[in-house]
């Protein structure tokens, strides 16, 4: 059985050990530094009294350093090697790129000990900061960052023209507009730019409008039409590229006009070609019938300059207009109407203001009858009237002031067109309404002949009496000389008694 004194010493040792462990644990927990870290439980050495001493610590890891084969490389042409130097042993080397673990890929090679990093065929994405970390069991040291510079470019060069509209291998710009040429590429360090115009071997010297990758022409004119080239050079990357663009300056279009053939156009027998005349080249052409745009069809030539109408109809007169345009301006011609000859056809009759619905018209005896003949014709038709095949009038309107029985019968109207050389006829039957005499035609003729005979006889008798009176007067004169004292008889003075 232990003595009370010995038991007191044992409890004191246990309490001391627990106190030291608590103090050490708090200090260790509060210490964030990677320079000293407990390696294992064996580092805690018990005292002769059974209580642990303070933990033993290892020496801090040395800060590694990086050496690099070359800090500046040209893309795709060179390799680069980094070496992590550290005096420590039994450590593991980790590599960090731009503060992130270095990703592994086919162009990254590591030595067995991890200290040597080689990047094959360096690319622009490999540029950045590199660090190596030395890891012990419970501590780590990191090197200072080393920066890798990668020269690249210029990549493929593209010239853009603003404002401009591509048209095949040409860019079209509007006359009078401000145009900027921009050469776009990727390059590090920044490339230099030299601009050339057409076949001139000298750089463009528009210094007021020259700004590295851009060239601006404030007011484009025809003299600026040509080929623009830009030479982009990167001296550090030992590389140059060139691009060119052909520029065409579009004029502001002026009003065109429609040219038609100078000949007579006849319906159904003629075709016509209308041509849009303009002084501008390379412009678009479109046609309008009235205000309606004519879509591309067999009536339009491939270049749209010609509008072809086959088998003209009377309603093809138009008006027609053509419009020339480019993407910056447009202008339309004056409308043109075609003069198309046709007819005569579609004939009909009117009597007064009434259109005759059939081919017969009835009118009262002694009334006034007006017949008018109509026909569709261009130019206006000429009209000829016949009555029972006898020509009675030339003109579109036939007027009979007082209808008689002899006006009855068939009336035919013939319309003719002196240009188309076509004729057209239509007929109407006229019927006279009224009281007809009971005498026959023969009686009427006999009476008429008798009257004429009586008139002739009266005229002849009058002539005979006049001659007889003249001879009697001559005899009386002689007799009066002989018988001047004779009184005339009463019978001679009043022959009527």
TrEMBL record:
GO cellular component: cell surface
Region of interest (Disordered), ranges: 475-497
Transmembrane segments: 439-465
InterPro entries associated with the record: Ig-like_dom (IPR007110), Ig-like_dom_sf (IPR036179), Ig-like_fold (IPR013783), Ig_sub (IPR003599), Ig_sub2 (IPR003598), IgSF_CEA-related (IPR052598)
The Ig-like domain, residue ranges: 55-134, 154-242, 256-339, 344-429
Keywords: Disulfide bond, Glycoprotein, Immunoglobulin domain, Membrane, Signal, Transmembrane, Transmembrane helix
GO terms for biological process, alphabetical: heterophilic cell-cell adhesion via plasma membrane cell adhesion molecules
Database matches in SMART domains: IG, IGc2
Keyword DNA repair: no
Signal sequence range: 1-29
Family: Belongs to the immunoglobulin superfamily. CEA family.
This protein's name: Carcinoembryonic antigen-related cell adhesion molecule 20
Organism (species): Bos mutus (wild yak)
């Amino acid at each position: 059985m232990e003595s009370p004194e010995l038991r007191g010493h044992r409890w004191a040792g246990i309490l001391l050990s627990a106190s030291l462990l608590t103090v050490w644990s708090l200090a260790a927990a509060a210490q964030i530094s990677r320079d000293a870290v407990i390696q294992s439980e064996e580092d805690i050495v018990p005292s002769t009294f059974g209580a642990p001493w303070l933990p033993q610590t290892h020496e801090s890891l040395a800060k590694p350093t990086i050496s690099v084969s070359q800090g500046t490389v040209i893309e795709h042409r060179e390799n680069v090697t980094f070496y992590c130097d550290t005096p420590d042993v039994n450590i593991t080397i980790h590599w960090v790129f731009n503060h992130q673990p270095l990703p592994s890929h086919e162009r990254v090679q590591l030595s067995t000990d991890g200290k040597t990093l080689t990047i094959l065929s360096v690319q622009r994405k490999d540029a950045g900061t590199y660090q190596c970390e030395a890891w012990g069991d419970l501590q780590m040291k990191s090197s200072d960052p080393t920066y890798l510079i990668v020269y690249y470019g210029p990549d493929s060069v593209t010239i853009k023209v603003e404002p401009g509209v591509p048209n095949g291998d040409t860019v079209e710009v509007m006359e009078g507009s401000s145009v900027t040429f921009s050469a776009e590429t990727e390059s590090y360090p920044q490339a230099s730019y030299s601009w050339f115009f057409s076949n001139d071997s000298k750089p463009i010297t528009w210094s007021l409008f020259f700004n590295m990758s851009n060239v601006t022409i404030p007011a484009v004119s025809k003299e600026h039409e040509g080929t623009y080239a830009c030479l982009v050079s990167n001296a550090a990357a030992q590389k140059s590229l060139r691009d060119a663009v052909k520029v065409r300056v579009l004029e502001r279009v002026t009003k065109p006009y429609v040219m038609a053939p100078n000949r007579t156009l006849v319906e159904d027998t003629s075709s016509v070609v209308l041509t849009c005349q303009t002084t501008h080249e390379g412009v678009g052409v479109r046609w309008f019938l009235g205000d309606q745009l004519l879509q591309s069809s067999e009536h339009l030539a491939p270049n749209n300059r010609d509008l072809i109408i086959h088998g003209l109809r009377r309603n093809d007169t138009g008006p027609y207009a053509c419009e020339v345009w480019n993407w910056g301006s447009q202008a339309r011609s004056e409308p043109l109407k075609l003069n198309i000859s046709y007819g005569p056809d579609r004939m009909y009759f009117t009597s007064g203001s009434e259109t005759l619905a059939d081919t017969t018209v009835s009118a009262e005896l002694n009334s006034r009858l007006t017949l008018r003949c109509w026909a569709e014709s261009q130019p206006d038709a000429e009209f000829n009237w016949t009555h029972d095949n006898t020509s009675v009038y030339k003109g579109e309107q036939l007027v009979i002031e007082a209808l008689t029985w002899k006006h009855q019968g068939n009336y035919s109207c013939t319309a003719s067109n002196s240009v188309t050389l076509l004729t057209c006829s239509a007929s109407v039957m006229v019927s006279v309404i009224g009281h007809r005499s009971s005498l026959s035609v023969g009686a009427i003729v006999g009476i008429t002949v008798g009257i004429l005979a009586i008139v002739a006889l009266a005229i002849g008798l009058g002539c005979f009496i006049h001659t007889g009176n003249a001879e009697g007067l001559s005899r009386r004169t002689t007799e009066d000389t002989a018988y001047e004292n004779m009184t005339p008889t009463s019978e001679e003075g009043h022959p009527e008694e």
